[in-house]
Each structure stands twice: as C-alpha cells, then as structure tokens.
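Problem: given the chain below (200 residues), write out its structure.
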Amino acid sequence: MSAAALSAPPVRSALFPPPSVPLRFTDGDRYEWPHTGDVWVRAGGDWVPAPDDGSGYLTDAEVRAQLHRAVVNWDVTHRFVPANPGGVLPGRLILALSPVHEAAQYVRNHQGDWLVPLRELVAQHDDDAAYDIPGVISGTALTDVLRTIVAEQPRVRMTYDEVAGRVYARYERAVELPSSRGFVECLHVFVFAASSAEVA
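Solution.
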C-alpha cells in the first residue's frame, strides 16, 4: 500500500460509538481513535498505522475486541470507517436480496466523501432524530431498505460482497440547485454485524 493511501485525513470527532462490530473486515477499512488522532488502515490482512510511525500493527482480532468494548460501553473514542469502494462496487450484482444478516448502515458524507453511520449523517441535521436511528438493522429490515431504494431511485446498482460481509447500493438522486437541477451520487454500505459469539 502506498504512503499516500496510508496518510490519514484529519480524524473526525465521533458523535456516537461504533454501531456494531463488523462480521468481517476488508483491506481499506479504517480504525480510528478520534480523540487522539491515531489511525490504522487494513492492508494485506493487517492493520497498519497511518501514516506508518512505527507504533505497531494490529490484528483483526484485536480491532474486533476493541470495537466490541466500544459498542458495549457506548465509547465514542473509537470509530470504524468502512473502505470506500470507489468506482466499481465489489462483489456480485444483485437484483434482490433475501434476509441474510443484521447490518450497520453506512452512507457517504458528501462534505468529505467518507462513509459514516446513517445516524451520524442524520445528526448533522437533527440531533434528537439521530437517537431514533438504530445502529443495527435486521436482515428483514435490510431487505426492506434495499427494496425501497430500488422502488424510489433511478439507476440503482447493488452488489453483494460475501467475502467482506457487505451489501452496496449506489444510485443518483435528483437535487435542486440554485440555477438548475442536478444529481448527487448516493452510496449505502451495509456492513454485516458480528454476534457476541463471533466477536469472541
């Protein structure tokens, strides 16, 4: 992984603890401590400090355990940021999905082009409403959300990456601009949540 890929933008302060512990990790995922600015990026199956300052590497098991403690203790000093898939969505194209696993929903924050939990995006507009957003949704709710996206949005592309334990949905949403009408590309990443047994 290049030095540019490992260099970290300023770490954002967390509004909420991580919504869940991911069932699986994939290269490009980030583990951040917003209060200290420490960042690790998963590369080649290991968690590498970014930038590499020689502070040591972490394993998936270590990151999983630390995120689990953050979720249980409502600790906002830890943050998980899923890898942004870029132009080509990983996995296989899907038209519909049967309920598979509960998942945390991440969405693109257009102000910084990173992925944030849905409730943090809602909190930017309405703090109180954000607390009503569940951190994790059931497999049935995930299927319902995907069906709604397909029914209401044009040019939807959905993929299922079984290896990374993620479902991706990308579409363009029409927005009114001051002088014209434009489109904003929206991205939802559903990261399957690990059960307590899978965390241990």
